[in-house]
Amino acid sequence: MALIGATPKPGHVGNVVLRNLRAGGFAGRLMLVNPHHAEIDGMPVHPDVASLPEPPDLAVIATPAATVPNLIAALGERGCRAALVISAGFGGDAAGRRLTQAVLDAARPHLLRIVGPNCVGLLLPHLGLNASFVHLQPAAGRLAFLAQSGAIIASVIDWAVPRGIGFSTMVSIGEMSDVDFGDLLDYLASDPTTASILLYVEMISHPRKFMSAARAAARLKPVIAIKAGRHAAAARAVASHTGALAGVDAVYDAAFRRAGMLRVYELEELFAAAQALASGLSPAGDRLAILTNGGGIGILATDALIDHGGRLAELAPATIAALDAVLPPTWSHGNPVDIIGDAPPGRYADALEALLGDDGADGILVLNCPTAIASSAAAATAVISTLGQRHPCVLASWVGEETARDARRQLAEHGIPSYDMPERAVRAFMHLVEFRRNQVQLMQTPPSLPERFACDRAVVRQAIDRALGEGRSMLSGPESQRVIQAYGIPGIASRFAATPADAAAAARSLGRPVALKILSPDISHKSDVGGVRLDLATPQSVEAAAAAMLDAIATARPAARLAGFTVEEMVHRPHGFELIAGMIDDPQFGPVMLFGQGGVAVEVLADRALALPPLNLALAADLIARTRVHRLLQGYRDRPPIALGRHRARARPAVAADHRLRRDRRDRHQSAVGGPGRNRRPRRSHRGAAGRDVGRRAARHSPLSQRARDAAHLAGRSAGAAAADPPRGRAGIAGGVQRPVAARRAHALLRAAEGAVAPHGGKADPDRL
Fold first, then answer.
1. Sign of dihedral through CA atoms 269, 271, 275, 280?
2. Among positive and negative, which fits the CA dihedral 505, 509, 514, 515?
3. Which of 4, 376, 567, 761 lies 20 to 30 Å from 314, alpha-carbon distance?
4. What's this model's pTM, rounded to 2 decimal places?
């Protein structure tokens, strides 16, 4: 390793990094570079990179930002493969972005990877490597922690050291000019020293690569993320911190869920979730049975369970009978199961055994509060003995500190997650529930198009071309109706009317009560200006309403351009619900599906859920279930439930139509802007393993130079990415790909890679690669 910018001056970054490298116990060779010193603390110092006795595997750069591009070029010439740039002064303004690009340009010819800039450093405690300027040495452990914020890294270390929490890897990735979350997830997924991966995320630079790597990693080990910048003010702070947009928080939520990750909202919760998931418990649902010796803490646990979206398990009659047989008559006779404050260890054992036999409980939370009558430690021993070699979903909360410490230690030693407060235990249970749900979603593999169906694409192109030709970014109501109906999605009868008299004639032709709406390219929310009238029964009432509407809009919006009116048949459904279903095009993650409660108050209600396409019926049902209006759809008071299962067969063509509409929309966008859509970057995936294996074999057996072997390896990764990466407009960022297309793309890339690695038997050409 080479430390460039090492200095004997106390308080300087180069001095702190040097001190940490020596204190960590790194066994490899450490070389120092500084033109102003001959030695530091007895270690020889080299004046420049060229004078190093051997090429470093890793270079740590702690020099002014302006010096970094030339240092990277010199390191590449020496054969260095990776650089950790701690220096700040990049990103942000135009000058900083130019400097960042200069660093990347210097690295590219040498295939040199860069972590940073503007980061705290890299820590690998298993290797004794602390290439950072943090103030403490973390212990070795099984958690990997990746963060964009160096302050978060330092704070977490300070919090973890006294608690004995260890790490396999800690990386402060800073501005992610090159190495990003996707690269590190790709590595950590197969790292044998890492059991769980924790992320502190402010923004994602390459969403396609991130999603591919996150999905592959989440199949193998828990991946838990905390996302900063959830609100508008915080997102602006992220922009100033990382120099990039934070993105819409709800879209990140959908992305994390689709990738099989677990999202948390507090740093302490991050580690509590890691503890829970490390237990390997996997509840089948969200129904929790609570066993307690104190009614108060049982009630607190119940409140927390409901707050987090869980449910109290309904105990079966056989379970109630079994508890009656072993508990005193004063027990609660329900869930929570209050076994009374004088409960001896045997009472805990008998009650737990009865609850373990209830199939209506997906998990059991055992609570204990200290008393002078019964031993908390003995109660913990009884729980451990009752479980024996069984591994059901059982969590514990021994409340308190002085008398509960030993009990919690016993429980933890036997693999039972234990917490000091009931609310934390409930939250851990819900983390397990949410993680399992996300893992189920992860294994869903929707096809690019669920089934074949007919669509009139000429009608769609005509509508979109006309809007683009008129400089509009939004279709009118009638145009939207025609587009939707062209894809086989049912709509309502609608007529265009230029004048109030035409509106009356349109109503007469429909022959039933109608809704009248103003048609204007300048008015999106028509009801705000009196531009909607409902349930007009006669042509005369329609004509009068249209004339009054023109007068009202002339006063409210005198500058608005009026194209006429839309006359639509009035739909009467006494027990119907207003819903909204749609799609947004997120600037980072691309197409995102939306479902929620509709109506004029849709923004105020804010009852909506998002999901990344493509969706199959299971994923679509989950999207609906994550809204509040879903509870109304289940039926309430005099409202009958909506038979969602019965509508699935009819929903299938609509799902297919939506996928086709989304693809065509992307195609039309590309035609309009004269090129492919944004973010069409290669990603890596487990599906590309075959392509990567080809590259590895080529790298291993080729007689070419090291640089050429690396090019072959990267070419294999690119081919693997091609096999895993669908055209974005076809399946979306979370989708699959048709296998014949994947095979053709993979073979074409491999042929191109062969030419780039050794054209005509010569040397590798990085530019061609």
1. positive
2. negative
3. 376
4. 0.78
